[in-house]
Amino acid sequence: MCKEVNHVSKHYTLWKIKGWTRRERQVIEAVKDVSFKVEPGRALALIGPNGAGKSTMIKLLCGILSPTQGSIKVLGMDPFKDRSRLAYRISSVLGQRSQLWYHLPPIDTYHLLGRIYDIDRSELKERMKELIDLFDLSTFLYQPVRKLSLGQRMRCEIAAALIHKPEILFLDEPTIGLDVVARSMVIDILKDLNQRKNVTIILTSHDTDDIERICEDVIVLNEGRIVLESKIREMRKSFFHSKIVEIEFAEQPSDWNLLPGARVIDQNGPVVRLEVDLKTCDVNEVVSRIVAHNTVRNITIQDPPLESIIQHIYLSGYLAGREAEQNAQIDG
Ligand SMILES: Nc1ncnc2c1ncn2[C@@H]1O[C@H](COP(=O)(O)OP(=O)(O)OP(=O)(O)O)[C@@H](O)[C@H]1O
Questions:
Q1: Above 70 in pLDDT, residue 254?
Q2: Does residue 222 share a domain with residue 276?
Q3: Do both 231 and 245 map to the same domain?
C-alpha cells in the first residue's frame, strides 16, 4: 500500500477579536473523517468545489500538517512525524510554496537540491540533463526565476520536484494559469511519469481535462467529506444518463417534434444542441423524428462533458451534506 488514510479529520482554529479584551474561538473543520487507500503507481485526482478540503488533504499527505484525528501512512511512514525521512521518497508541487530560489536561476536550485538529497555529482549531472531535455528548459535555465513566465516557472518547478526520483508526486493545481502549449506539455509529462516511470501521482485540479488526461481514479470532496470515490471511467458510466445531440439543419428548423425527455440546450443559427434524457426517451427515436420532418446536414451524438457530471456530483454531495447536518441538529 502506497498510502492509507484512516478516519482523518483536520480542524483549523481561528481566533476572532471581539472588542478590546475578548477573543472568540472558531473551529473550521476542513477535513472530516476521511478514509481512503492508494495503491502504488496509481494517479488519483482530488476534486471538489472551493473550500472542499483538497489542499488541506494534500498538505496532510505531504506531512506539512498533522491530522487533528485519525492516522495517515505514506510508504509505511507517518508523513508528519517522519517528514524528513519521507522527503527522500516523495515530492510536491504546491502552488504557493516554490522550491525555486526567486532571485537565482533554476540551475542553482537544482545544484542545491542535489546537495540536499545527497545525489552523487555525476548522477545529478545526468539527472539534470534528462529533466532539462524533458521539460525543454535550456533557453531559460540561467535566468533568475523572477524573470521567468508562469509556464516556464511551472516547468522548472516540476523538474525540481523530480530531481531525486520521488516515488510519489503531489501536485496542487499544476496547470493553473498556463497557456495551452505549456499546459499540454505538463499534462503529457505527468502522464508519462505515471505510466512509464510508475510514479504515483496525487493531484488537485479544477480542470476536468487535466483530471481525465492524467488520472484514472478520483475522489470527490465536498465540505471536507468524501462524497464519491471511483474510477473516472466508472464515474462516467454511472452518471451518464443523457446524451448530447448536435444537429446542423440545412435551413432554420420548422418542426422539431421533440419527444418528452429531449430539450434544447443551445441554438446558434441552424445548429441546435439537444440534451436527451436516456431514462425517459430513446436517442435514436429523437433523431429519426427530427430527420423525418427536416432537412439535416449533420448530426453528432456525444456524451455530456465530464464537467457536467462533476457539477451534478457536487450539487448532490452538497445537498446530502446539508441534509445530514440538518438531521444532526434535529437529533441533537
Ligand atoms: N490555514 C488555515 N487556517 C484556517 N482555515 C483554513 C486554513 N487553510 C484552509 N482553511 C479553511 O479550510 C477549508 C478547506 O480549505 P482548503 O484550502 O483545503 O480547500 P480547497 O478544496 O483546497 O479549496 P480551493 O479549491 O479554493 O483551493 C476552507 O474553509 C478554508 O477556508
A1: no
A2: no
A3: no
Nearest to 300 by CA among 271, 268, 258: 271
Under 8 Å between Cβ of 12 and 30: yes
Q: Is residue 159 part of a domain?
A: yes
pLDDT of 320 higher than 70: no
At 37, which CATH number?
3.40.50.300
pLDDT of residue 85: 93
Q: How far is the CA of 55 from the centre of ligand 1 (A)?
A: 7
- Cα separations in angstroms, 282 against 125, 236, 243, 253, 317: 61, 19, 10, 21, 29
Provide ipTM, 2 decimals.
0.97
| Ligand 1 atom with the shortest distance to the CA of 221 | 21
Q: Ligand 1: distance of its center to the CA of 191 in Å?
A: 27
**Do residues 233 and 245 share a domain?**
no
How does pLDDT run across 134-168, given as a tens digit for each residue? 899 999 999 999 999 988 999 999 999 999 999 99
> Domain range holding 256?
241-302
